[in-house]
Amino acid sequence: MAYDDILYEAAEGIATITINRPEVRNAVRPKTYEELTDAMRKAAEDATIGVVVLTGAGDKAFCSGGDVSDQSKRTPHVGRAHMRRLYNLSSIMRMMDKPIIAKVRGFCVGGGNEINLFCDLTVASEDAKFGQVGPRVGSIPIWGACQLLARYVGERKAREMLYTCRLYTAREALEMGLINDVCSADDLDAKVDELCQTILDKSPQSIRIAKIALNTGSDQEFYGSYFPTSELLASIYGNEENMEGISAFLGKRPTDFRKFRR
């Protein structure tokens, strides 16, 4: 597959995958998800690769989530195809027998934070921001956040993140257990490379088994929840309440979700 939305580089045991849409803060559209899936599969099947680094182009965002302009065109039928697309990407990331490190600068929100949750480790620069935004735009983060977030940050904090759509600093994300390390933007590349080298010095078969073992419990929670909730989310695409969030975002106006409780 030729890539338009991402960059792929493999060298000295490390595969680096970069979401390359800085003009939209690395928002992901269907093409981006498909290219990420192909790149992750390429890294998984390359026996010379021991660790994968996932990052975003520029210094504004790791990934700002789903491209809302694309979401505005979704119907339940289109949404169901999209749910299958998401499943393909998360499955290859979870099944890959090598660690994936998220290298985060700037915004890591919405679907971007869910991609972060599917990574094994996260190192962020001090200017990074984390959070979920689904209910702010008439959606729900059922692709990982509803299932995995509480395992990282605890049940109460996960509910706070999902219900309020508040954004958190890198230091706050570190304190709550969402990420592994924080450093200056200037030191981020070196810090991630140091982590990669530490992993590459370890037994690949041991890491392979450890990842499978660590994922076993959360796999059951994720996949058991994802299939029914993905159908629920697909079923609301294009309805009035869903479109209120999307049209408000695109029109740069405040949302009025309170009218749906009158």
UniProtKB/TrEMBL annotation:
<comment type="similarity">
    <text>Belongs to the enoyl-CoA hydratase/isomerase family.</text>
</comment>
<dbReference type="InterPro" id="IPR018376">
    <property type="entry name" value="Enoyl-CoA_hyd/isom_CS"/>
</dbReference>
<dbReference type="InterPro" id="IPR014748">
    <property type="entry name" value="Enoyl-CoA_hydra_C"/>
</dbReference>
<protein>
    <submittedName>
        <fullName>Enoyl-CoA hydratase-related protein</fullName>
    </submittedName>
</protein>
<dbReference type="InterPro" id="IPR029045">
    <property type="entry name" value="ClpP/crotonase-like_dom_sf"/>
</dbReference>
<dbReference type="InterPro" id="IPR001753">
    <property type="entry name" value="Enoyl-CoA_hydra/iso"/>
</dbReference>
<dbReference type="Pfam" id="PF00378">
    <property type="entry name" value="ECH_1"/>
</dbReference>
